[in-house]
User: Fold Hydrogenase transcriptional regulatory protein hupR1 from Rubripirellula reticaptiva.
Amino acid sequence: MTAILLVDDDMNLLRGLRRVLRDQPYDLYIANSGEMAVQMFQRCAFDLVVVDHKMDRMTGAELITWIADHFPETVRIMLTGNARVELAQEMINRGGVFRFLTKPTGDVDLAMAIREGLESARSKRVCVGPPVGTSHFMSANTVSADAMVGL
Assistant:
């Protein structure tokens, strides 16, 4: 089953996220700090993580960057109450964030971001190289184009 880790220092928000996602086919885990999330990653690989930016000691940005370095295949979504463009750019460029959501985030938006992130990861795993026969198809097109020039 798909394993998702929700990370936020606000336990009420974590409970709300878990409630929103409880009917989905996911194994849900929660961590109330970046440090706890790191410990959990060292015991278990997660398919997707949703991280709040503003947390004590280890920020969401630091955690996202750590996950990108150590578990690059994990899909990363960031939640924040601070919608600064610079932060979004940094997290997308340095942390490889799939989606950057601002609080409050609607239940449907969060569920859709998670579903799309997981689908994106699956499609990357399936399509790891050019399709079989691509070079043959390309050369056939080239020949056809060359033949058409003479017409």
About this structure: The chain has one domain: 2-149. Confidence is low (pLDDT under 50) at residues 133-151.
